[in-house]
Amino acid sequence: MIRRIAINTGGGDAPGLNAVIRAATVAAVRNGWEVLGIRRGYTGLLEGEVDGEPGVFNLTEHGVRGITHLGGTILGTTTRGNPFGMQPRQPDGSWGGRDLSDELISRLRALDVDALLAIGGDGSLKVAHILHQKGMPVIGVPKTIDNDLRATDLTFGFRTAVEVATDAIGRLHSTAEAHQRVMVVEVMGRHTGWIALESGLAGGADVILIPEIPYSLEGVADKIREREEAGRRFSIVVVAEGARPRDGEPSYADRSGRYGGIAERLANQIEDLTGKETRTLVLGHIQRGGSPISSDRVLALQFGTAAVRFIDQMIFGTMVALQGQTIRAVPLVEAVSAVKRVPMDGESICAARSLGICLGD
Ligand code: F6P
After folding, report:
1. Listed residue (43, 115, 45) closest to 82, CA to CA
2. How many domains in the chain?
3. Cα torsion at 117, 122, 128, 132 (round to 10°)?
4. How far is Cα 55 from Cα 34, in angstroms, rounded to an integer?
5. Taking every pair of C-alpha atoms in the chain, what is the biggest distance, in angstroms?
6. Beta strand 34-38 with 182-187: parallel, antiparallel or unpaired?
7. Which of 2, 263, 333, 337 is most exposed, with minimal Cβ within 10 Å?
8. Tens of pLDDT, residues 240-278
9. Does residue 190 line the site of ligand 1, with CB under 6 A?
10. Is 357 inside a domain boundary?
11. 124 and 34 co-located in one domain
12. CATH assignment at residue 259
């Protein structure tokens, strides 16, 4: 019998997090359950206090009113909150080191939490999976703008990110044409090119480079020259941050393994090869910020309420997943076992090829 659940949000934020929190809270309260919110991933649970506020607090219907359309997360989040490798906080804010998962579970038990609803991407859901293996009843909700989680057709936040990127790419057309320039737009996507492909298609890109297809620089330059010869004296290149050349490495922003800088690198190479003035735009975190578009709000509300339904049915160790038109509970292990890459025979790749868009191969 469920009496109390806890909710947390982990990893990079995504538009729609607050809609999931609201949906799950309202549905749970209507079931007669109490709902606890944990601040900043698992930090609130482990440290008791976050920024002078209680680390764990009651989420009420009143407290989640009017947040469906808000970006970010009212619970806060962190990309440094893996409880299997924590030790007392370092000056730089990281944890690193000690496994605190048993402590985390005993704190959840001390709070009489019957089930944990973990909203996160691959990293956070791997943590959720291990917590479940250690005996905690857990259900996951898939979140990432990258849309790279297996077992679900979509993650919330993805379509908003595509919308933001599409708008930016669209706006570049007139300025690129006016100046007869090449514009290289770097979008997010560490291991997969979902955002680059969809926004590139929708925004009318001439070249789309994704991690799934290591690119030939000559192929990219040929496409730009071909357009030039046809009188199209500007080109738009969309590149996922994790894309890499056929015979080279991806571009890393720093030693932590974060991606970044591919647009600048490509722009210099394109300019050298084609002689065309080339400029860059790195969209960065704007893709994650702001209000979710309506389809992401609806998906998030569906995910949040479905998660509560599955908790009620005691289907734990699972993640809510959109498959076709239906939301199902799939084993967490299925979702986190591998990355969901863009299929080479998928409709978007086929459409791009039929339209003559250069995919770098
Ligand atoms: O949310 C996923 C993601 O957007 C990646 O595409 C990107 O590399 C990463 O997050 C960057 O996040 P942060 O700068 O917050 O670590």
Report:
1. 43
2. 2
3. 120
4. 16
5. 71
6. unpaired
7. 337
8. 999 999 999 999 988 878 899 999 999 999 999 999 999
9. yes
10. no
11. yes
12. 3.40.50.460
What domain range is 246 assigned to?
Answer: 159-289
Report pLDDT digits (tens) over 170-189.
Answer: 999 999 999 999 999 999 99
State the Cα–Cα distance between residues 287 and 82, nearest whole angstrom. 24
Query: Predicted confidence band at 59 (pLDDT cuts at 50, 70, 90)?
Result: very high
Q: Which two tokens stand for residue 119?
A: 């909203």
Taking the CA of residue 13 as reference, the ligand 1 atom at the shortest distance is: 1
- Residue nearest to ligand 1 atom 4, measured at CA: 188
Least Cα distance to 209 among 221, 223, 198, 193 occurs for: 193
Q: What is the DSSP string of 133-178?
A: HTT--EEEEEB-TT--BTT-S--BTHHHHHHHHHHHHHHHHHHHHH
Atom 10 of ligand 1, nearest CA residue: 12
CB atoms within 10 A of CB 133: 13
129 and 209 both lie in a single domain: no
Q: Are residues 251 and 319 in the same domain?
A: no
CA distance 195 to 218: 24
Answer whether 189 contacts ligand 1 (Cβ < 6 A). Answer: yes
**Encoded tokens for 222:** 């040929």
What would the pLDDT profile of 149-174 be if each residue is shown by its tens digit?
A: 999 999 999 999 999 999 999 999 99
Are 152 and 301 in a shared domain? yes
Residue 361 placed within a domain: no
Considering the domain boundaries, does residue 179 fall inside one?
yes
Does a structural domain hold residue 212? Answer: yes
